[in-house]
Amino acid sequence: MSRANLDRVVSEIADEMRQRPDRGEVASYIPELARVDSKSFGLVVIDAEGHVAVAGDSETPFSIQSISKVFTLTLALGKAGDRLWRRVGREPSGSAFNSIVQLEHERGIPRNPFINAGAIAVTDVILSGHQPREVLGEILRFMRFLADDSSVAIDEAVAASEQRTGFRNIALANYMKSFGVLDNPVDFTLGVYFHHCAIAMSCRQLAMAGRFLAHLGRNPSTGLSVVPPERARRINAVMLTCGHYDGSGEFAYRVGLPGKSGVGGGILAIAPGKASIAVWSPGLDASGNSHLGRIALEALTKRLGWSIFGA
Amino acid sequence: MSRANLDRVVSEIADEMRQRPDRGEVASYIPELARVDSKSFGLVVIDAEGHVAVAGDSETPFSIQSISKVFTLTLALGKAGDRLWRRVGREPSGSAFNSIVQLEHERGIPRNPFINAGAIAVTDVILSGHQPREVLGEILRFMRFLADDSSVAIDEAVAASEQRTGFRNIALANYMKSFGVLDNPVDFTLGVYFHHCAIAMSCRQLAMAGRFLAHLGRNPSTGLSVVPPERARRINAVMLTCGHYDGSGEFAYRVGLPGKSGVGGGILAIAPGKASIAVWSPGLDASGNSHLGRIALEALTKRLGWSIFGA
Amino acid sequence: MSRANLDRVVSEIADEMRQRPDRGEVASYIPELARVDSKSFGLVVIDAEGHVAVAGDSETPFSIQSISKVFTLTLALGKAGDRLWRRVGREPSGSAFNSIVQLEHERGIPRNPFINAGAIAVTDVILSGHQPREVLGEILRFMRFLADDSSVAIDEAVAASEQRTGFRNIALANYMKSFGVLDNPVDFTLGVYFHHCAIAMSCRQLAMAGRFLAHLGRNPSTGLSVVPPERARRINAVMLTCGHYDGSGEFAYRVGLPGKSGVGGGILAIAPGKASIAVWSPGLDASGNSHLGRIALEALTKRLGWSIFGA
Amino acid sequence: MSRANLDRVVSEIADEMRQRPDRGEVASYIPELARVDSKSFGLVVIDAEGHVAVAGDSETPFSIQSISKVFTLTLALGKAGDRLWRRVGREPSGSAFNSIVQLEHERGIPRNPFINAGAIAVTDVILSGHQPREVLGEILRFMRFLADDSSVAIDEAVAASEQRTGFRNIALANYMKSFGVLDNPVDFTLGVYFHHCAIAMSCRQLAMAGRFLAHLGRNPSTGLSVVPPERARRINAVMLTCGHYDGSGEFAYRVGLPGKSGVGGGILAIAPGKASIAVWSPGLDASGNSHLGRIALEALTKRLGWSIFGA
Known about the structure:
- Helices cover about 45% and strands about 10% of the residues of chain A.
- By secondary structure, chain A is of the alpha+beta class.
């Protein structure tokens, strides 16, 4: 794969996406998110050598929302190791991102760390007795370190918007609390959760932050290790089976890469050994995943032969 | 990977498995299956060059059961193409292999082709107006062609045993029929289903039959194409997200390969570009997947660096 | 209550119903039932003295369908006593008459004897090793005895229609069989079930057959005892809480009498100590209960002050 | 029924209950409730003439908990009339008192006013823009008026205990809020809900408060009308079908009276036209209803022939 070829493919795909009429629906359940320009589109691919191929709105920060769950999972595994899995499963849920039914049938243990309930449980593990402010600082420093960019910040308006209207997440958290699955005061855990979901990043920053997952836990440019190789593989596995809520099977089928979407319209996708990829298009499909983001990634893996299921 | 190295790893793993006291429980819900020797263990790996590494009971035929669903899915996609997906989804189910709850909530459309209901719907598509006997012949010829072995056969005792006692599958089929999801007489569809699940194959035959999935749809030894490259990738994707029922997340997390298990204790696993793998150990875990089979595959991918999530 | 007054109220209500434009939808899932005239309407009230007030199509036989479940419950309690309750519960189901979800969550034990699954389990208890033909004869003789009319018969066309198309009931029965809840061959149990649901009776016959429930288990005209007083009360209690599927609360709220409906459009209602009532109007509401039947009964209890909840 | 006979039956039953070893388990999920003496037992029957038959701890106030839901339903129907039923159904739920599953399947509308979610929705209707303190005052005045006793009060320790630990109710309320089913701030609605559940009353006070339901909406001693006759009947109907959570069918089957239980161990039962009855025994059965309370009521209706299903 030459740099020129990668640049060309990325640029072509961005052009094609710009011309498509179908864009999905911008998330409206968090009022602040509904304000974003539905025509935005960004795509960034960073290969193993560190070459950065960009197209579209690659420098515009957007709300990463659930993509943050990949990084809080990474932190929680660092803190609690396999004990984390007493609090959250790692199976696809077979239901919507904010379903509560499964919790009732499985005594408050969320199915995986990427549905809302699971990510709240993961946040609770990271919090473990500390002050929300401290922990939030830690998460933000981690994101800045990974993105190699100290300008990564929380969008307080989005966090406040969700804190005012996030009744379903409040329900999920209290429900888990009633089963003893959360250790900290519900308000503390949710405060941290709403804020880390409100981190704003550009495609470039996000793709940079995901590089350790593409390269066995290390940033190949700096050589710094973030997690052991096995853990990187396993996080990728959870992304593949659970990263797109009830559209995870579809994403695996069409794109063939581990990935994690957010309702802000971003997707982080990992081509193991090859590249870290971030795409952003705010319109969502019925499962709550970026509509054009998924289509762009499908085109990308097809043209570059990057599917993990056969190349 | 030298042949000697592969042979050594396969042989070591078989030795280690033989010494483990934990073997899981042999399936008893199909009376005929309960008779198998719980100490049986076979492992076969066939690499891209066609080298066959074997260990243990690699030539003993066992009931492939749900592993047959990979091949009926392949046949059905060949016959119906993407129209197949009107009858069955491709998302993980989040429930047990024989659950009926999801069908009621989703108007009789099974979640994916690898849970029982989904595989029955796939069988119905293959049947499409033909006589059960003809279609069963076609499936058997396909398996013999893929395994390159005309001795592959149906174990009629197992088929009869399931036909007598498979009330839950009869319930699933009639339930789908009530929603108009099945076209053929229920008895016809179930007859074919029970019989293709009762195909008996050895690890060697099974690993041989899976080779096209490891190599973009072609058998690399004969050069014969079975399916287009894209279809091979996609079948692998469905295997990864749905191949182990409600233990699919766990299998992806630990083994990191697309795979399909059967309650006979077999697992077919695919290392894209590298190898087709079959393992057999009759004792099952709580999700109905081969207990030692999964552990053996985990050891194998770790030692050979074959995980699709980073190598 | 004078006879003249009762005659007048019954006649008025029949007139009012005849003029209403809203009639609900005639059941179409059993093809044979769809042929009935949607304008039919019959109402019969038999008071404690044996006076029979009639209006409309009171002598036309219709398919009693699920109303037969009251009588098979009576027979099964006579045969098995409280042991019956090991096979079936007596709680409202909170779901549709043909739901299978509850069975999966409660290990194949149906919630109550009046949902389809429960009535199939009750039929299995009555069958208990006998031949379907004998048991069907026994049920029919019981109905003729209660109705004091030897002309009561099974509509074989309806039975055959359901046997050909009753996939959902076949699913329910096989599902219970898989949990060991049914003792007899599924075909036997379903054969009897489909046939007793296909009994055809007129409103007059049905109201006559229900008299023992209104009068502590005895027919007050003949003095013959059918069940002990306690059992009559308890059957009435199950009718009140479970007799109208997921519209049972609504029926209790509006009508205030124990009652059992059938998809043929009939309802048998019991005013304890006062009367046995049968109404028939084939159009159904969303819960599968006779639309005008329920409205007629609401008018009747209001005008006569017969609600069991305060008079 | 002579007064002497009623007094004797009430006294006999209390004696029998005192000697039984089986008492059920005192509710522990509200810490403050767990402190009550499990041996307490009270029974009060007030007949149509106003005669009060008492036995056991008839004057000891206990936490009425969910029994308060009968009275908030009465208030809400007075305020909103049939519009109330847009926010809550009136069908048995087929699930536990605190289940959230049904809410997800039915878009946040609780099944009936007597499960927790339903009672929270009813409380929200009563609140409708007013201050929690005012509304709580109104509820308390209503209870004092009905009980004809100004000493009825809220047990603040119980209210505080539930406010600290009632995570499941907080979850239910926020869940409904996310569907727009609640109008007021969740904290307001829950504040009122927790407090009215924490009203403490003796059996005597409770039986007095329930008299209007036994007598077509009027207190027969004072002649004061509380609700129209039809409404009294309908509240009784909802009590019968939904008053004992997932044990409502059982209560109807065994006792044969409309009734409402609370986890404090109290039950209010209504014999229409005959009596208002309150019983208290803190130990609960598996469905969360008073174990001995139900048994005592079963004995009472049997001996007095008060079942609404035939006398």
